[in-house]
């Protein structure tokens, strides 16, 4: 017969089983009963659980509960009785619109960089081209103009690398393909002639 714990002493934090209670009353006699120590109850915890720990666990449990969201088609909740109307939530902009705006900003930066290149200010122009590419990494003209700037600085390997990038991103535009191939030929001729 299997005996389960039945009493719990809150002061001591101990549980006494039916067997311990029966032995204490002298109801259990027989072989092996002398091994059972009735004066020592069964201990579940070495120390009592601190009350603050219990409160903290309950708090964490309650904090992790989610607010229920009504299913679609459910009636809307009643309006706020204060009469103050909350502003409507801002409509999120589609990713395409944001990408288009970044591309426009990149084009404006490249245009400013082209003007600086025409004035002979290559380094500030390069910074603008790099800013344009950080805004729109697939903006092909930025790579073309960076290749042009590196060509002006006589760094043929960098000019060649940016020319290749421009060719990747502008392969769909016939006018740009012509300009890129002309730029590649100029870079190759200058690279063959040496510094």
Describe the fold and architecture.
The chain is mostly helical and 195 residues long. 54% of the residues lie in helices and 6% in strands. It is built from 7 helices and 3 strands. It has a 3-stranded antiparallel β-sheet with strand order 1-2-3. Helix 5 (140-152) packs antiparallel against helix 6 (156-169).
List the helices and strands and how they pair.
Layout: E1 5-9, E2 14-17, H1 18-25, E3 42-43, H2 51-63, H3 95-118, H4 122-135, H5 140-152, H6 156-169, H7 174-193
Antiparallel strand pairs: 1-2, 2-3
> How would you name the oligomeric state of the polypeptide chains in this document?
single chain
Q: Which spans have pLDDT < 50 for at least 5 consecutive residues?
A: none
**Sheet with the most strands, sense and barrel status:** 3 strands, antiparallel
CATH class of the largest domain: Mainly Alpha
In percent terms, what proportion of residues is strand? Answer: 5-15%
Helix/sheet category: mainly alpha
Overall residue-averaged pLDDT value: 75
The strand order across the widest sheet is: 1-2-3
The CATH homologous superfamily of the largest domain: Tetratricopeptide repeat domain
CATH level-3 fold name of the largest domain: Serine Threonine Protein Phosphatase 5, Tetratricopeptide repeat
């Amino acid at each position: 017969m299997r005996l389960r714990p039945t009493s719990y002493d809150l002061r001591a934090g101990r549980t006494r089983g039916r067997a311990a209670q029966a032995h204490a009353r002298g109801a259990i006699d027989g072989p092996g009963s002398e091994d059972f120590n009735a004066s020592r109850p069964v201990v579940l915890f070495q120390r009592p659980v601190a009350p603050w720990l219990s409160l903290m666990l309950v708090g964490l449990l309650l904090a992790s509960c989610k607010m229920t969201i009504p299913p679609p088609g459910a009636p809307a909740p009643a309006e706020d009785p204060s009469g103050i109307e909350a502003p409507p939530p801002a409509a999120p902009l589609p990713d395409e619109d944001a990408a288009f705006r970044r591309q426009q900003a990149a084009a404006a930066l490249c245009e400013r960089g082209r003007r600086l290149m025409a004035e002979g200010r290559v380094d500030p122009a390069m910074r603008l081209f790099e800013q344009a590419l950080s805004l729109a990494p697939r903006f092909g003209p930025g790579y073309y103009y960076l290749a042009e700037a590196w060509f002006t600085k006589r760094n043929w390997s960098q000019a060649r690398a940016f020319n290749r990038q421009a060719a990747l991103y502008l392969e769909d535009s016939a006018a740009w393909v012509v300009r890129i191939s002309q730029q590649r030929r100029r870079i190759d001729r200058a690279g063959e002639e040496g510094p």
